[in-house]
Amino acid sequence: MLVDRGMQVPSVEVVSDAYAIAANYLRRTGAIPDTIQPNDQLVDIVVQLFQRGEFNKLKLANKAISIFEAAQAA
After folding, report:
1. Residues ≥6 apart with Cβ < 8 Å to 22
2. What is the torsion angle, in degrees rounded to the nearest 10, for the CA atoms of residue 40, residue 43, residue 49 and residue 50?
3. What pLDDT, in 10s, does the model give residues 10-36?
4. What is the spatial distance between Cα 16 and Cα 42, in angstroms, rounded to a whole number?
5. What pLDDT, in 10s, does the model give residues 36-52?
6. Rounded CA gap, 36 and 6, in Å?
7. Which of 19, 20, 47, 66 is most buried, taking the most CB atoms under 10 A from its CB?
């Protein structure tokens, strides 16, 4: 998933953790289905935020959740 996007190993850990936090929240709220397969839209949001300079996994997850929910509402 992330290796295909050309991420470095430390970057993969931050992005992976942020994705897990965001996905867990979104699954609990019913915004995404509870499946093993990652949500591509959420992965793309997390990766884009990381590439723009957000390296704190909690901030990254919270921003990704906000963006994802706003996109779903639109």
Report:
1. 42, 46, 61, 62, 64, 65, 68
2. -140
3. 688 999 999 999 999 999 999 999 998
4. 11
5. 899 999 999 999 999 99
6. 22
7. 19
